[in-house]
Amino acid sequence: MQTPHPLPAVVRLAPGVSVRVVAVARVSRAGADIPALRIPLQQFFANTVSVGILKQADELVLLSLTALRDAITAFGITPIRQAGWGVVANPRRAGQARMTETITKFLTNGAWSVSPHVIPHCLLHSLSGVLSQALALNGPNMGVGGVPDTEEDVCLGMAAWLAGGDAPGGWLVWAGWRDDDPEGPDAVGEALVAAVELTGEPADGETGWRAVARLAPEGTT
User: Fold this and answer.
1) 86 and which of 56, 64, 139, 191 could share a cystine (Cβ 3.0–4.6 Å)?
2) Residue 207 DSSP label
3) How many CB atoms are closer than 10 A to CB 87?
């Protein structure tokens, strides 16, 4: 198991935009183990996320909520500190597993075997919307990328908000499946979250996604 870097740490999200990373967490789970996350998540986010939302939530949403819970708990991020924060999230191939399951049920058992409520939970902005609701944030939220090799879009989106004064800080979120395969017997889902605040402090080294990811390397959960 690798050791995460100490926080807070200052990194550049984009040229000219430095942030202080004040919380970070990375989680990974086998696909078969992800549905069991719903119960502990309902307990932790009981005041903001309903049972109905978690029932329909995509696996990547469940992983991201778990990572958020871990980061909040480990680093003591309070609701007051998050005032005005936003969420930028990159769900890689959002909803792929849920839609595959839904279409299979529809073809086999007809329309009454599936719920239309699955649709709004499988869109690019679904992840950021649920996370924003779970955290009771009043800042902006958006989904970006959605396909492999778009990790940098998260950093660029947050950098634009911070530089433009739209938010004082926020959550960066990446979620996806190893090998982009959510259906195989060895499928493993992963989520990485980081809480950042705008700072004028200088930052050395890498910029963007790689600078944030090295703070919670694979194998820290």
Assistant:
1) 139
2) B
3) 31
111 within a domain of the structure (yes/no): yes
What per-residue confidence (pLDDT) applies to 1? Answer: 42
Task: Please check whether residue 218 lies inside any domain of the structure.
Answer: no
CB under 8 Å to 204, separation ≥6 — which residues? none
* Residue 169: partners with Cβ closer than 8 Å, 6 or more residues away: 19, 22, 82, 84, 85, 162, 195, 196, 197, 198
For residues 6 and 202, the model is more confident at 202
Q: Is a pLDDT exceeding 70 seen at residue 164?
A: yes
Helices in 82-219 by DSSP H: which ranges?
96-109, 126-135, 152-164, 209-213
Classify residue 4: in a domain, yes or no.
Answer: no
CA pair distance 44, 218, nearest whole angstrom: 25
DSSP classification of residue 111: G
Number of domains in the chain: 1
DSSP β-ladder status, 188-199 and 17-30: antiparallel
Question: Residue 155: inside a domain, yes or no?
Answer: yes
21 vs 7: CA distance, rounded Å: 7
What CATH number is associated with residue 200? 3.40.47.10
Read off the pLDDT of each residue in 62-91 and give the average, rounded to a whole number.
96
